[in-house]
């Protein structure tokens, strides 16, 4: 009985270990210079910008003082195609044009019923004054 209780306590949700095989793995190693005009909006909290890299590009979001988040622009629940490149809406969500699915820009979580995958997140490191390194390793 105790064993069953322990096992059920530590068992993972059925969907939590699902590997997203819809998006191919691509190496990401992007340097972002916040002083460049294309990234000027990243200098304020709540600002965002698009960047090259990944599968369909990268969304970078300034989430807090010296804190940034980066996401793959390919919608996580669809195979990459032209309409599955997500766009930022109202600086709060990311939206896929294929099916109008919506994802939270603060944590990548799906906000649309039936979507089980969160947006693919990349690691962001502050490597110097006004310099970010975005990687997936």
CATH T-level fold name: Rieske Iron-sulfur Protein
Radius of gyration: 17 Å
Q: Strand content of the residues, in percent? A: 25-35%
The CATH homologous superfamily is called Rieske [2Fe-2S] iron-sulphur domain
CATH architecture: 3-layer Sandwich
Number of strands: 9
Q: How many domain modules?
A: 1
List segments where confidence is low: pLDDT < 50 over at least 5 consecutive residues: 1-17
The helix/strand series, from N terminus to C terminus, equals HEEEEEEEEE
The overall pLDDT average reads: 88
Shape: globular
Task: Tell me the strand order in the biggest sheet.
Answer: 1-9-8-4-3-2
Tally of helical runs: 1
Helix content: under 10%
Secondary-structure content class: mainly beta
CATH class: Mainly Beta
Gap between N and C termini, in Å?
42 Å
What distinguishing features does this structure have?
137 residues; mainly beta; six-stranded antiparallel β-sheet; three-stranded antiparallel β-sheet; 1 helix; 9 strands; 32% strand; disordered N terminus
What does this structure look like?
The protein is mostly beta strands and 137 residues long. The chain has one domain: 3-layer Sandwich (Rieske Iron-sulfur Protein), CATH 2.102.10. Helix content is 7%, strand content 32%. It contains one helix and nine strands. Strand 5 and strand 6 form a beta hairpin. The longest helix has 9 residues. It is globular and about 40 Å long.
């Amino acid at each position: 009985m105790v064993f069953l209780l322990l096992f059920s306590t530590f068992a993972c949700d059925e969907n939590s270990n699902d590997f997203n095989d819809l998006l191919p793995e691509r190496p990401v190693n992007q340097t972002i210079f916040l002083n460049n005009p294309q990234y000027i909006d990243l200098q304020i909290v709540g600002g965002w910008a698009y960047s090259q890299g990944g599968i369909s590009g990268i969304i970078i979001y300034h989430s807090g003082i010296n804190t940034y988040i980066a996401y793959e622009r390919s919608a996580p629940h669809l195979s990459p195609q032209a309409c599955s490149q997500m766009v930022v809406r109202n600086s709060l969500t990311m939206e896929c044009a294929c099916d109008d699915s919506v994802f939270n820009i603060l944590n990548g979580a799906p906000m649309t019923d039936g979507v089980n995958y969160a947006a693919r997140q990349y690691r962001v490191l502050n490597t110097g004054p006004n310099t970010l390194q975005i990687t997936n390793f």
